[in-house]
Amino acid sequence: MAQDWDIRPRGETCHKCQGPFVEEQVYFSALLFSEDGYNRADFCQNCWQTVQPGFSPYSTWQGLFRPPPPQEDVLKKETAESLLRHLMEDKDTSQRNAIYILALMLERKRILVERDVQTRENGDIIRIYEHRKTGETFVVPDPQLHLDQLEHVQQEVVAMLGSGQETPSAPGTPPEAAAAASPAAAQAPEPEKPAQPATPNKG
Question: Domain containing 90: what range?
Fold first, then answer.
């Protein structure tokens, strides 16, 4: 079976017409899932309207294209972001809970924005985030943690972060713990909305 989590880069050109995206241009993203894993395709508005008939991707959303920062800036990550990338690339299934908590932390810091939520037939919940600066897609499974599980996971994350400068909400404070457990409570306002495949012009 394909890896549960993944990081997919945003395209610099339209998947269909190959035209380059320009700053502030509306783009439409489609995430496809197969036994080989996730694949992302990005489209300009005109091409998106032509591919919609019969096109059934796993997830879709729209955004405004912003050129990625220079490579030297990309490498200067927040500690939590570096750790999240490392754990996702390492593909260690024992770190599912830590990956989820780190994604929530970055969402609350407005580094990631949640674009979609998908529920598989087996009940698994998959949360799809997009990096606000680089446009990368982060596919993160939701382990549906209970409040009594948070303290242990948060301690693990704090230990991995090491410096303690970026830490999850303290588990001893119920409102903060509830926010860490609930993506809806943690989500920051975001003007860009998930795209509706049947009506691509809606925001």
Answer: 6-185
